[in-house]
Structure formats: structure tokens, C-alpha cells
Specification:
This protein is of the alpha/beta class and about 280 residues long. Helices cover about 35% and strands about 20% of the residues. Helix 5 packs across helix 6 and helix 5 packs across helix 9.
């Protein structure tokens, strides 16, 4: 009898998740007898769902909004970076223990390296806009890559201040209004706020002080080309969109659950692009 491995994504709501499309594509491509389902888990039922995770036959899964922090507190923490972040997006069972890890930061770095071939993070100066969960994962991963300095600007300055206190002296806080004053000293600009998403305000900043070699990244992927990326491209700057991060953050989980390290290909990107265009 063929053993079908079963993984899932949990969230509340969960209909929007593109993870089933992504993992379903890889399961088919690698002809793996597996399943990946979306499961709506309310905050009230989260504890019992996690307690019964192994009993339901799952090998692992993903965790999305609003459960990333709550699940972190209920599972074994897989690695020091995750311990620092205090949130998980990926679960896996090992010897009967349920582990949680965060792969968003990995996804950001892997996406950037795939999009900009000669990108070397060592010593570069990065400006990060935002201080939410995604910004936190990105900061952790950038520091692991050996960047020289990270300047964080956030609408609510106290959240950025907390980052600086926690992540150490390579991280500085800069004002949200007038953040452009640091752009002349910036090699990479990252939008990790939700501004620019369909239905939200655009991110209104002046990119003209950025040097010509600067790379501009947006982790928002609906729309694919945010107003920020359109503006950066029109200035001739290199751009990295949020879809790459979404695809790459899924790689470690799939490999652990199903035993194959999946490739992020142009075909997969086209599939997700079509889905974003259809449902935006
Ligand atoms: N590409 C990917 O794989 C990927 C992965 C994760 C997240 N994302 C996207 O990244 C974005 C952020 O996600 P998150 O999980 O970090 O969310 P979050 O924890 O809620 O943080 C939201 C961030 O956006 C800022 N923000 C929201 N509205 C704003 C406004 N009107 N003006 C200025 N700043 C505003 C918040 O600032 P305050 O602190 O002042 O509220 C905060 O810094 C979302 O759009 C999400 O879809 C993409």
C-alpha cells in the first residue's frame, strides 16, 4: 500500500492562502503520493488542533495569520533564529515531537539571490521599512548574511526601537517621515510594510536619492508590481518582487515533509502570477 504523506496550512481565515497551489504543484511535478490541504482553525480551537496534530496523521504544515506567535509558544523551537523571532510559519514532526521554524527570512534571502545573480549581502547597507512580523524575519536573516548596517523606519517608532534594542548595534532606527535622507547611503531598500497592497495606500517615498546600484525589494505581492517597484524600475534600479519570497519560503518545509528539495522555477512563478492576477 502506498503511504500518502499529509501536510496542511492552518490560519483564520485561510481561503486566501496560496500554499496549497504551491505545494500541490510540487507534489505533482515530483510525482509524490502526498496531500496538502488548507484547514481553517479558529483561535479558540488552535490549542486542541496542535495537541492532536500528530494524531491526525500530518507530517507537518504551515502556519499563517493570526496563529504564528501562538503556535510558537506550543511547539519545540527548531533553531536559534526562530527562538529569536518568536513566531513560526512551518511545522514538522521528528521522532514524535512537533517542531516549529520560521522560513520567511530564508525565503527573502533566497529570492533576492535568485533574482539578482551577483548580489553579495556582506557589508551592505539596508533600509527596511516596517517593523512587523515579516520585517522581523527579514532582519534576522539579513544579519545572518553579514550585512553591514540595517536602518529601520516604521510608522510606530516604538516597534522599530524594540528591534534595535533586540538585534544589536548593526540596527539603527531612522524616522519614518523623511526616511529618504538615508537613501544616498543605502544599497538595498526593502518595503516590509503592507503599504502598496491592493486596497491599501501606496507607499509614498522619493527614490531619487538612491544610488544607481541600489536594489529595491517589495515583499507585497498583490499586485505583483507594486507602485514602489514600478517607480524603482522606471529609474533603472534593480527590483525584487514579493512572489519570490513566497515561493522560496515554502522550500524547506516541502523538503522536510516529502523528502525532495523542490525547485523554484519560471513555470511555478507563472502559475502563481496567474493566480494573483485572477484573484487580486
Ligand atoms: N512575500 C511574502 O512571502 C510575504 C511574507 C510575509 C508577509 N508578506 C507581506 O508583508 C506585509 C507585512 O506583513 P507582516 O506579517 O509583517 O504584517 P504586520 O506584522 O501586521 O506589520 C505590518 C507593517 O506595516 C506597517 N503599516 C501598516 N499600515 C501602514 C500605514 N498605513 N502606514 C505606514 N505603515 C503601515 C505597520 O506599521 P505599524 O507598526 O506602525 O503598524 C507594520 O510595520 C503584508 O503585506 C504581507 O502580506 C509577504
Amino acid at each position: 500500500m502506498i503511504h500518502v504523506k499529509h501536510a496542511c496550512v492552518i490560519g483564520w481565515p485561510i481561503e486566501h492562502s496560496r500554499s496549497p497551489l504551491l505545494h500541490g504543484y510540487w507534489l505533482k511535478k515530483y510525482q509524490i503520493p502526498g496531500r496538502y490541504d488548507r484547514i481553517a482553525v479558529s483561535p479558540e480551537t488552535l490549542d486542541s488542533f496542535i495537541d492532536g496534530f500528530a494524531g491526525r496523521g500530518f507530517v507537518g504544515g504551515n502556519v499563517t495569520i493570526p496563529h504564528k506567535e501562538a503556535v510558537f509558544r506550543r511547539v519545540a523551537v527548531a533553531d536559534p533564529l526562530t527562538a529569536r523571532l518568536g513566531s513560526v510559519n512551518t511545522l514538522y514532526l521528528s521522532d514524535g515531537t512537533l517542531y516549529g521554524t520560521s522560513t520567511d527570512g530564508y525565503g527573502f534571502v533566497a529570492s533576492a539571490k535568485q533574482a539578482v545573480k551577483d548580489l553579495d549581502f556582506a557589508g551592505i547597507r539596508v533600509a527596511v521599512l516596517g517593523a512587523g512580523g515579516a520585517a522581523r524575519s527579514i532582519l534576522g536573516a539579513l544579519l545572518e548574511q553579514g550585512v553591514g548596517r540595517i536602518s529601520v523606519a516604521n510608522r510606530s517608532p516604538e516597534r522599530a526601537e524594540a528591534f534595535a534594542a533586540e538585534f544589536g548595534q548593526k540596527v539603527e532606527v531612522v524616522p519614518w517621515h523623511g526616511v529618504e535622507t538615508i537613501f544616498a547611503r543605502t544599497d538595498m531598500l526593502v518595503n516590509a510594510t503592507s503599504l502598496g497592497m491592493t486596497g491599501k495606500d501606496p507607499l509614498r517615498i522619493d527614490l531619487s536619492p538612491l544610488p544607481a546600484h541600489a536594489v529595491v525589494c517589495d515583499i507585497v505581492y498583490v499586485p505583483l508590481l507594486t507602485p514602489l517597484l514600478v517607480s524603482a524600475r522606471s529609474r533603472g534600479l534593480r527590483i525584487i518582487d514579493g512572489l519570490g519570497m513566497l515561493m522560496h519560503q515554502a522550500v524547506p518545509g516541502f523538503e522536510r515533509w516529502f523528502g525532495v528539495r523542490p525547485e523554484v522555477t519560471a513555470e511555478l512563478r507563472s502559475l502563481l502570477e496567474a493566480d494573483v492576477m485572477a484573484k487580486k
